[in-house]
Amino acid sequence: MTFDLSAETSLAGPVFWDRRELDQLLRVYGRMVSQGEWRDYSMAGLKDVAEFAVFRRHGDAPVYRVEKRPSLRLKQGQYAVIGEGGLVLKRGRELAQVLKVFDSRKFTVVE
């Protein structure tokens, strides 16, 4: 009798972004900062989710959150972009595809 532990061992420990994913996230973040849309970010690595949150101003609630949930990788995709009200704007299996949601939107800063 053999057991496939690859799925379980990949979920052990905290979830965090790898170098390739961080590069993609920080490229989008840098572009939005240069346009004056975003000013701050935070990252969290928890037991079941990694989160990259962006803010218009330091201390505000996050404007957008990018989440990585490996438990959903075989279902609806492990990456998601979530808006201010908790609305899932895009979900998928590839981070680059999910981050394209920021390419198609016209952002305006509301004071």
Write the layout of secondary structure elements.
Layout: H1 6-10, H2 19-34, E1 40-45, E2 50-55, E3 64-68, E4 79-82, E5 88-92, H3 95-99
What do you see in this structure?
This protein is of the alpha+beta class. 23% of the residues lie in helices and 23% in strands. It is built from 3 helices and 5 strands, in the order ααβββββα. A 5-stranded antiparallel beta sheet has the order 1-2-3-4-5. The longest helix is centred in the first third of the chain and has 16 residues, at 19-34.
Largest sheet: 5 strands, antiparallel
In spatial order, strands of the major sheet run: 1-2-3-4-5
Distance between the termini: 63 Å
Order of helices and strands: HHEEEEEH
Short description:
The chain is α+β, with helices and mostly antiparallel strands and 111 residues long.
Keywords:
23% helix; five-stranded antiparallel sheet; 111 residues; globular; alpha+beta; 3 helices
